[in-house]
Amino acid sequence: MRQYLDIISQFFTDQKTIEILQALLIFLAGLLVAKVVTGSVVKMLEKRFTTHETQLFRRGIFYGILSLFAISALNQMGFNLSVVLGAAGIFSVAIGFASQTSASNLISGLFLLGERPFSVGDIIRVGTTTGEVLSIDLLSVKLRTFDNLYVRIPNESLIKSEMTTLTKFPIRRFDMQVGVAYKEDLSKVRDVLFDVAKSNHLCLEEPKPLFIFQGFGNSSLDIQFSVWAKRENYLDLRNSIYLGVKEAFDAADIEIPFPHMTLYTGSVTDPFPVRFTEKETADASPATGP
C-alpha cells in the first residue's frame, strides 16, 4: 500500500503531470467560458439578426474563444506555438490548392449571408428540389423535403442556379388553368368563377381575383383564373378551389370539354365525316376461300 501511495504522490508532484493538468483545466475553463459568452451574445443578437445569421455568430464566437484557450493550454504544456503555427500555415496552403471547390462554396456562403435571399424555416425551390431550410452553413444549405428527405445543396450551386423562395412574402397567387366548351358564354363563366372565389373563405378579397382569357384552344376556350391566399393557406386553397369550380360548373351546366378530334375522308371538295364508335360485335369466324 505504501508503495502505491508513493507512486501516486510522485505522479501528482511530477512537473510534466502538473503542466498537463493545468492545460486540461485551462481547456475546460475555456469550454465553460465559450458556452456562457456565446449564450449571452446570442440573446442580444436574436432581435437584430435572422436565425441563420445568429447561428453563424454562435459558432464563430464559440470556436473563437475555445481556440484561444486551446492555444493557451498548448503553451502551458510547453509546445512551441511558432512551429505549430508555421506547420498549420503550410498545411493550409496545401489544403487550399486541394480544395478549390470548398473555397468556392465558402465564398458563395459569404455572399448568401450578405444577400439574405432566404432564412432558416423558409421553403425554397432549387431546380427540381423543394424543401424547408434547416440550416445555412458556410459550405452548404441543408433542406428537408416534403417527403421527409434530407438534402444538402452546395452554396456554389445556389449562387449559380435559379433559386425561388416560396415563403418570402406573406401572400401568394395561385393560377388555375381551366377550359370551357366553345358554346359557353364567357361572361357567365366569369361570373361563376368569381362567385366561387367569393364563397371560398381562403381567397383574399384584396388583391382581387383575376380572369384572363388566354385564347382559342384545340378543344376549348382557355382561361386562367388567379386567386390570392395567405402563405400558410396556399395548399388548402389550391385543393379547395378546384373542387369549388367543378361543383359550380356542374350546377350552372357549363361544360369542361375533353380533347377530341374530327376526321374527314373523301374528296377535298366533298368530304364526308367518319365517326368512330364502340359497340359490341359478334365473334366472326375467319373467312376461308381458295
Automatic annotation (TrEMBL):
Mechanosensitive ion channel MscS C-terminal domain segment(s): 175-256
InterPro entries per UniProt: LSM_dom_sf, MS_channel_C, MscS_archaea/bacteria_type, MscS_beta-dom_sf, MscS_channel_2nd, MscS_channel_C_sf, MscS_channel_TM-2
Membrane-spanning ranges: 20-44, 56-73, 79-98
SUPFAM superfamilies: Mechanosensitive channel protein MscS (YggB), C-terminal domain, Mechanosensitive channel protein MscS (YggB), transmembrane region, Sm-like ribonucleoproteins
Membrane topology: Multi-pass membrane protein
Pfam families the UniProt entry points to: MS_channel_2nd, MS_channel_3rd
GO cellular component, one term: plasma membrane
Protein name as catalogued: Mechanosensitive ion channel family protein
Organism of derivation: Candidatus Desulfobia pelagia
Entry keyword Transmembrane: yes
Subcellular location as annotated: Cell membrane
Keyword Cell membrane: yes
Annotated Mechanosensitive ion channel MscS domain residues: 102-164
Superkingdom in the source lineage: Bacteria
Molecular function, one GO term: mechanosensitive monoatomic ion channel activity
Keyword annotations: Cell membrane, Membrane, Transmembrane, Transmembrane helix
Similarity comment: family membership: Belongs to the MscS (TC 1.A.23) family.
